[in-house]
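Q: How would the C-alpha cells look for this protein?
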Amino acid sequence: MKDILFITPPFTQLNTPYPATAYLKGFLNTKKITSFQMDLGIEVILELFSKNKLEEVFDIAFENERLSSYNSQRIYTLRNEYLKNINLVIAFLQGKNLTVARQICSDNFLPKASRFEQVEDLDWTFGSMGIQDKAKHLATLFLEDVSDFIVECIDENFGFSRYAERLGKSANSFDELYKGLQEEQSYIDAITLKILEEKLTEIQPKLVCFSVPFPGNLYSAFRCAQFMKEKYPEIKIAMGGGFPNTELRSLTDTRVFDFFDYITLDDGELPVELLHSNVINSTSKNPDFKQFKRTFLLENNKVVYNNLSSKKEYSQADLGTPDYSDLLLDNYISVIEIANPMHSLWSDGRWNKLTMAHGCYWGKCTFCDISLDYIKVYEPITAKLLVDRMEQMIAQTGETGFHFVDEAAPPGLMKELALEIIKRKLTVTWWTNIRFEKSFTKDLCYLLKVSGCIAVSGGLEVASDRLLALIKKGVTVEQVAQVTSNFTEAGVMVHAYLMYGFPTQTIQETVDSLEMVRQLFELGAIQSGFWHQFALTTHSPIGLNPAEFGVLPNYKEITFANNDVDFKDKTEINHDKFSFGLKKSIYNFMNGIGFDLPLQEWFEFKIPKTTIKNDFIISCFENEDDFTTKSSTKIYWLGNAPLISEVKKSKRGKTQKKLQLIFHENSINFQISLEEDKGYWLLNTLNKLAITSGSSIIFSELKSDFETHFNNFEMFWYSKPINLLRENGLIVL
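A: Here is the predicted structure in C-alpha cell form.
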C-alpha cells in the first residue's frame, strides 16, 4: 500500500521511461512520503505485442472483415509466422536472446510486409559485422508492420509513441475529446484498463497522479481517470506534466473535473506535496487545508485556480535524486527505425534522464514559450551534485548512459560536469541539447568527448542570418557551421533541429536553407536532422506580440487547451507544400546519399535556384578564431603520463642533453624532444595540469612559472612540441 501512485499513460517511448515520475518519486523520498510509479505505456505495449494478444488481433480483424488492403491481407496470410516470431523479437529488442540476431538477418526468417520495401543496402549501412544493429533494424520493421496492421484493422488511433494524438492537439474545446470518451472502449483501452486495475488493487493508493507530457498521452489519461471514477470513487485523481503546463492554463470547462479532481501546472514537487497533505488530512486542523500551489479544481461547480499556499518553491539542490525503482527497466524495447547512429539515440538504449539546469539560460528565442516558468526560471545545478546524482542512479539502475534533457545545456556547466566526471574517473556515456554558440571551441568539444559525451542536438532552425536574428537565436550560420565542425572533429555526433515557415520567410530563404543543410551533411558537420514547420504558440514572444512579426492570428474561444494558434503570415506563402520535399531530402542525407542531386529533384513543383555558393559552409570552417591565449584561461592535460628517455646529441662538437617524452594514448602514440631542463619542467607541469590532480592552473600562472626558469615563454608555448601536445590532449578552456 502506497499513498501515491504516479502513472505515465500510453504512449511515450519504447526504449526508456519518461523521467517526470522518477523526479517526483525522488523528491517524495526526501519527504518520507510513500509512492509507486508505473509506465503504463510500456506495459500495454508488451501485452499487445505478445503471441496471445496478437492472435486475438488477427481473429478480430478477420471476423470484422477489416482486411481491406493488400498489405493487411499479406500480413494476415502470414499470421502464423508473425505469431511464431513475436515473443522472440520482443525479447531480442529487450536485450535478451541476442544470438537470434544472425537468424533475424537471414533472408527468409522474418515475414516481410510494406515496411521492408523501404530497406536499402543494409550490408553497406551496417557492414559485414554490424549484426546486432542490423537485426535490431529488421526487428523494428517487423514490429512496424504489425503496428500498421493494428492501425488499419483494430484501432486507427494507435501509435508506438502516441495514442489518439489528434484528440489532444489544438483542442481549444473539450467537446471532441469528451465525445470520444463517451464511445465504447477500444481494444487497446481494454488492455490499458485491465493493467491499471491490477495495479490499483496491488498498490491501493489514496492519490493517483497522471503525468501527461504530450498530446498523445491525453486521451488515455482521461480514459483511465474515467474508469477510476466509476470503480474507485474514493481515490483522488490529479493530472500534471508538459501538456497541462503549456496547454491548460486557460481551463474553464467544468466537465474536465468529472474525470480529475486536480490539475497542476509547472514544477510538480510542491503542488504534489500539498495535494498529498490535503488528501491524507482533509480537515481544517491541517495547516495546508485547501492551500494549494498552481492547482485547478472545482468549487461550487466553477473551475478555480488555487495558488494560496505561502510555502516557498524548492531549489534544485533540495529535490533529491530521481528514483527509477518500480519501473520495469529490463523490459524496455530498443529499436532502430532509421539506420543512422545519431538519429537512433532517441529510440535505442535505456538512458537515465537528468537535467543540468531548470529552465533555459538563453531564454530569448521568439518562437519558444519563454514566458512560462519551465523555461523562464533558470536555476543550474552544481557539477558536483550532478555527478553525485549520476553515481546514485548508476548504482540503482545499473545503467551508465545519461540523456540530459535540458532546453539548452549551459556550456560552462557542461565544462564543469566533464571535469568532475574525469576527476572521479567515472566511465559514463552521455548526450544533451545545446545552443550552437561560440563557447564550444575545439578544446571544449574535445574535453566533452573525453568525459563520455557522444552526441549533441541543437537548433539551427532556419539557416538564414536574417531569420536567425528575428528568432533571436544569438548565432549565425557561420558560427553554427564552425561549432558543428568542432564537435564532429572531436568525435561527437550532431543532430540539427530545422524549421521552415517562420513568419516572413520567403521561398528563396527556404531553398537556400536547404542548400546550407545539404552542405553541412555532405561535409560531415552534422549527422542527423529533422525539419518541422513553424507553429505559433500563445506563450511565445510571437504569440504575445504577433503584429511585430507580421502574423495575423485566428484566435478561438478557449475553454480547454490553449497553445497552438492558427495564423496567417503576411507573405501568404503556402509553406505546407515544402514539407514532403524537405523531409525526403533529409532522410536521404542522413543515409549519406543524394548530395549530388539538384535541389529541384526533391520537389514536385518549381523552386528557384539557390543563391548559396557551393563552398559556403567549407569557407565557414576556414574562418578560425584568434589563436592568442587569454591570461585567465585554464590549462588542462587530458593525456597519460609519458615515458621518458634521456638522449645525448652532438652538434658542432658540443654534447647536448635532450629529454624525449614518449606518449601512449588509446589510439595513437607520439613523442617530443626538448632540452633536458625544459623537458623535466614540462614533465612536472603536465602532472600538475592533469585533471585528476585536482589543481587548476591558468595561463598567466603557467607563463610566470616557466619564466622563473627560462626565457621567452611565448616562443615555447607556440613551438612544434607544444602544438603536438595541443593536438593530443593539452587544452585551454
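DSSP finds 28 helices and 25 strands in the chain.

The first helix runs from residue 20 to 30.

Upvote if useful.
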